[in-house]
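User: Just a sanity check before I run the rest of the batch. Below are the C-alpha cells for the first item. I only need the designed sequence back.
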C-alpha cells in the first residue's frame, strides 16, 4: 500500500498537467526567459526566469512609442536632422530635411522597427536631447513598476546597462494595450506615408511574421540584437481568450511562438 501511494505521488502531477503546460515545458529550453498571461482571467499560464535581467532589444520601442502617443503631439511635424539618422539598420532611411508627422514616425518605429524613426521621436520629444528622452523613459518605467529595467537609448541597442526582464516588459505591454492608438498600430502588417515637404513615399512592413500567418494575433513587437538574441512580445485574441506572451533570447522564435500560442488558444 505504501509503495502504491508513493507511486501515485510521483505520477499524478504529470497527469494533472494541462496540454499548454506540457508544450511550454517541452520548449522552455529554447528560452532564456518567458512569461505568458491570460489577460481575461488575470492569471499566469506559464513562466520561466521571468525576473532574469536581460537585453530587451527593440521591445524597448514600446516605451518609445507610448511616450510619443501620450505626448499629445502625434500630429506635430518633425524635421529629420543628421543626428536623427545616426543609427544602425534596421532603418526607414529618411533624408535630412524631410518632414513627417510624429504619428508616422511612431508607425515606422513599431511596425518596421525602424531605428531612425525611434531616434527621431526621442530627439524631437526630448527637445533636441536624446538623453532627456531616455530619462523620461526611465521615469515612466518606475511609475509602471518596472523595477528591474534600465533604458539607455530609445531603440533597444546593447549600449551600457540597457536591460529589462520579461516580467517588466509584460507590465509595460499590459499598460500599452489599454491605449487604442497603440493597438491600432501594432496589428498592422504594413503602413504607407509621405514626407510632408518632398512627397517621398515610404512603405513599412511588419517584422512580426505571426501577423500574416495567425489570424488571432493582434501584435505586439519583435526584437533582435546580437546580445539580446531573438525576442518577441505577442498578443493573441480569440473568442473569450486574450493572451499576452513575452519571450526573451529564444531559439527558433517563430516555430516556438506558434507552438506556444496554439497550445494556449485551443
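Assistant: Here's the designed sequence for the first item:
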Amino acid at each position: 500500500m505504501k509503495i502504491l501511494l508513493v507511486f501515485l505521488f510521483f505520477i499524478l502531477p504529470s497527469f494533472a498537467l494541462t496540454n499548454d503546460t506540457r508544450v511550454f515545458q517541452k520548449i522552455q529550453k529554447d528560452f532564456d526567459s518567458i512569461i505568458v498571461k491570460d489577460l481575461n482571467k488575470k492569471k499566469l499560464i506559464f513562466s520561466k526566469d521571468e525576473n532574469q535581467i536581460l537585453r530587451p532589444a527593440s521591445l524597448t520601442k514600446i516605451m518609445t512609442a507610448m511616450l510619443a502617443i501620450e505626448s499629445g503631439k502625434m500630429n506635430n511635424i518633425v524635421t529629420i536632422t543628421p543626428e536623427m539618422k545616426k543609427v544602425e539598420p534596421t532603418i526607414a532611411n529618411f533624408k535630412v530635411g524631410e518632414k513627417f508627422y510624429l504619428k508616422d514616425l511612431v508607425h515606422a518605429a513599431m511596425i518596421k522597427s525602424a531605428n531612425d524613426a525611434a531616434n527621431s521621436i526621442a530627439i524631437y520629444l526630448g527637445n533636441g536631447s536624446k538623453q532627456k528622452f531616455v530619462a523620461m523613459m526611465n521615469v515612466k518605467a518606475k511609475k509602471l513598476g518596472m523595477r528591474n529595467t534600465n533604458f539607455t537609448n530609445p531603440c533597444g541597442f546593447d549600449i551600457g546597462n540597457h536591460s529589462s526582464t520579461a516580467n517588466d516588459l509584460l507590465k509595460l505591454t499590459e499598460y500599452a494595450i489599454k491605449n487604442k492608438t497603440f493597438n491600432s498600430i501594432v496589428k498592422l502588417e504594413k503602413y504607407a506615408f509621405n514626407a510632408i515637404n518632398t512627397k517621398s513615399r515610404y512603405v513599412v512592413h511588419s517584422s512580426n511574421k505571426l501577423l500574416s500567418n495567425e489570424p488571432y494575433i493582434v501584435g505586439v513587437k519583435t526584437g533582435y540584437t546580437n546580445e539580446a538574441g531573438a525576442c518577441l512580445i505577442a498578443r493573441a485574441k480569440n473568442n473569450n481568450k486574450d493572451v499576452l506572451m513575452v519571450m526573451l533570447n529564444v531559439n527558433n522564435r517563430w516555430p516556438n511562438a506558434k507552438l506556444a500560442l496554439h497550445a494556449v488558444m485551443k
